[in-house]
UniProtKB/TrEMBL annotation:
<feature type="transmembrane region" description="Helical">
    <location>
        <begin position="12"/>
        <end position="38"/>
    </location>
</feature>
<feature type="transmembrane region" description="Helical">
    <location>
        <begin position="58"/>
        <end position="79"/>
    </location>
</feature>
<dbReference type="GO" id="GO:0016020">
    <property type="term" value="C:membrane"/>
</dbReference>
<keyword id="KW-0406">Ion transport</keyword>
<feature type="transmembrane region" description="Helical">
    <location>
        <begin position="340"/>
        <end position="361"/>
    </location>
</feature>
<keyword id="KW-0472">Membrane</keyword>
<dbReference type="GO" id="GO:0005381">
    <property type="term" value="F:iron ion transmembrane transporter activity"/>
</dbReference>
<feature type="transmembrane region" description="Helical">
    <location>
        <begin position="126"/>
        <end position="146"/>
    </location>
</feature>
<comment type="function">
    <text>May be involved in iron transport and iron homeostasis.</text>
</comment>
<keyword id="KW-0813">Transport</keyword>
<keyword id="KW-1133">Transmembrane helix</keyword>
<feature type="transmembrane region" description="Helical">
    <location>
        <begin position="208"/>
        <end position="227"/>
    </location>
</feature>
<protein>
    <recommendedName>
        <fullName>Solute carrier family 40 member</fullName>
    </recommendedName>
</protein>
<dbReference type="InterPro" id="IPR009716">
    <property type="entry name" value="Ferroportin-1"/>
</dbReference>
<feature type="transmembrane region" description="Helical">
    <location>
        <begin position="91"/>
        <end position="114"/>
    </location>
</feature>
<dbReference type="InterPro" id="IPR036259">
    <property type="entry name" value="MFS_trans_sf"/>
</dbReference>
<dbReference type="Pfam" id="PF06963">
    <property type="entry name" value="FPN1"/>
</dbReference>
Length: 373
């Protein structure tokens, strides 16, 4: 009897594991891991490639960063609106295709430039080199815009629908995606850096090219399967249903009572406390920022109506890049090591301001049910 029970438990565990591996959550995790790994490799490699191409000068890298930040700043809301107005599967597939094909073509151009650099520099009095640089930066920027659209679609919309608007499941998926993001952020640059160091820049381009082609196929298959096994993904509420949707969300929040709001307020207090008292400890600040980012991400997922998630998250992406531009401007304005303390103080003030605004928002939400009763 003991042996049969043990066998039954083993079979049950195997069956549960197979069901999970075929389920939408695991497929999203794998697809997200492949996409993030490719993004991290590309973002690291393109900066190194541009430095190598321009004679160990940071000019091209600076131009690339400015173009990327400026394009998302200007087009973020339009990208989000495009995500909202089109079917989920078409948005995901189009973004995936544009991103990976742009990186693939850009890698081919880089391989040609690295292989025939001297010959290219002699054509058109060197202007062909400028054309190649322009093509590389434009393609890399298009890939980044497509990556932004894919991130908004999958991590800000699909995940909410897959979890069935369950707060616990949504928090779990957000946390898992963040863990995947942090792991790939460390390992992907290390991997492609080793390839470029042990082989060459041309081999590094080829490695990224191959990865993106394989990733394109796998992600396309996995996202298509998720779309098929989660019927809710095929339905999007029209714009006229915004108000009724928001009212349902508010009623759902009110029914959850004050127990949800108290931990929220306490959580915000902890983050404020850690920032104020441990501002000089980088590890504590980073942990607090990651926690706060997860909180804000879920806040946007839960409070924004389904037909406006794309445009709101697009605006958020634009604001993120605006702050990134301000960060670069401040570093340029205070480049000396002795100015670092000023930058730290400014950073803490920005963090404190963000947490304070969130605290005020949480307090406002807490008071709403009282005014409506």
């Amino acid at each position: 009897v003991h042996t049969s029970n043990k066998s039954f438990k083993t079979l049950y565990l195997i069956e549960s594991a197979l069901i999970y591996l075929k389920g939408p959550k695991f497929l999203i995790y794998v697809s997200g891991a492949l996409s993030m790994w490719g993004d991290r490799m590309w973002h690291f490699a393109i900066s190194v490639f541009l430095i190598e191409l321009y004679g160990h000068n940071l000019l091209l890298t600076g131009i690339f960063g400015l173009v990327v930040a400026g394009s998302v700043l200007l087009l973020g809301a339009l990208i989000g609106d495009w995500v909202d107005r089109n079917p989920r599967n078409k948005v995901a597939h189009a973004s995936l295709f544009i991103q990976n094909i742009s990186v693939t073509v850009c890698s081919i151009v880089l391989m040609l430039v690295f292989s025939y650099k001297k010959w290219i520099e002699e054509i058109w009095d060197g202007w062909l080199t400028v054309v190649c640089y322009t093509v590389v930066i434009v393609l890399a920027d298009v890939a980044n815009l497509a990556s932004t659209a894919l991130t908004i679609a999958i991590q800000r919309d699909w995940i909410v629908v897959i979890t069935g608007y369950n707060r616990g499941h949504l928090a779990g998926m957000n946390a898992t995606m963040r863990r995947i993001d942090q792991v790939t952020n460390i390992l992907a640059p290390l991997a492609v850096g080793q390839v470029m160091t042990l082989a060459s820049n041309v081999v590094g381009c080829g490695f990224i090219l191959g990865w993106n082609l394989v990733s394109l196929i796998v992600e396309f298959i996995f996202l298509s399967r998720v779309y098929r096994i989660v019927p809710a993904l095929s339905a999007k509420p029209p714009a006229m249903e915004h108000q009724s949707y928001l009212e349902k969300k508010r009623e759902r929040k009110r029914s959850q009572g004050k127990t949800r709001l108290k931990p929220m307020k306490y959580n915000v207090y902890l983050k404020l406390h850690s920032v104020v008292w441990c501002g000089n400890v980088i590890k504590e600040m980073t942990t607090s920022l990651w926690s706060f980012d997860l909180t804000v991400t879920q806040l946007l997922q839960e409070t924004i109506c389904e037909s406006e998630r794309g445009v709101v998250n697009g605006v958020q992406s634009s604001m993120n890049y605006l702050m990134d531009l301000l960060h670069f401007i401040m570093v340029i304005s205070a480049p000396q090591p002795q100015h670092f303390g000023i930058l730290v103080i400014i950073s803490i003030l920005f963090i404190f301001t963000g947490h304070t605004m969130y605290f005020l928002y949480a307090r406002k939400i807490k008071r709403k049910p009282r005014t409506n009763t």
